[in-house]
Amino acid sequence: MASSQCCDNPPALNPAGxxxxxxxxxxxxxxxxxxxxxxxxxxxxxxxxFGFESPNLRKIADKVALSGYFVVVPDFLHGDPYTPNNxxxxxxxxxxxxxxxxxxxxxxPVIAALKEKGVSYVGAAGYCWGGxxxxxxxxxxxxQAAVVLHPGPITxxxxxxxxxxxxxxxxxxxxxxxxxxxxxxxxxxxxxxxVAHFVKIFPGxxxxxxxxxxxxxxxxxxxxxxxxxxxxxxxxxNLK
Length: 240
Known about the structure:
Blueprint: E1 21-26, E2 29-34, E3 41-46, H1 55-66, E4 70-74, H2 91-94, H3 100-116, E5 121-127, H4 129-139, E6 145-149, H5 156-160, E7 166-173, H6 179-191, E8 197-206, H7 218-238
Parallel strand pairs: 3-4, 3-5, 5-6, 6-7, 7-8
Antiparallel strand pairs: 1-2, 2-4
Helix pairs in contact: 3-4
């Protein structure tokens, strides 16, 4: 995941952003929460390398919550998001402390906490780094529906092991998960009749577009909103 595209357009992080609230521990992790506590369906959003204080990510959480879901955005990076201007910790060094496998293990207590509070259905969406965590959750059947947006490094073999409905939203301009690879994922999923899937490549956008867009770029905003709509639609179809 050492591609420069992972680091493009870093967000201005805001710990107080969003309409929801931040709690010190949900399933053992600090987390941003949005939506109704009474909801029987929950969605976990897993950030890219810039973490859970991304303003656009919290906007997505608030929007998903408006569709009736209890939304959790855990701080899987433990207050240590990637900092592009830290020369002592370039991405290959930073990632050693934040492997997606670790994120996968830390997601399990979050899911358990949701079940304990009465949630019956859990979906999850992840962006770049978070997309790798999502695929691990989908392989382990820890969730009932998955959405992966401009994923980090995942393989055809990973996709062969997916056990829950999965939506993969890719970018046309992506060196990490290029359209050719996304199409291979679609072929694998089409051959697996037991797993519902939706695969889409968004034209004219680059890796990271759905959560690191500029609000001044009308086309980028429209594309990001389309991806968010597709994400919510997938949960609406599969979390029931």
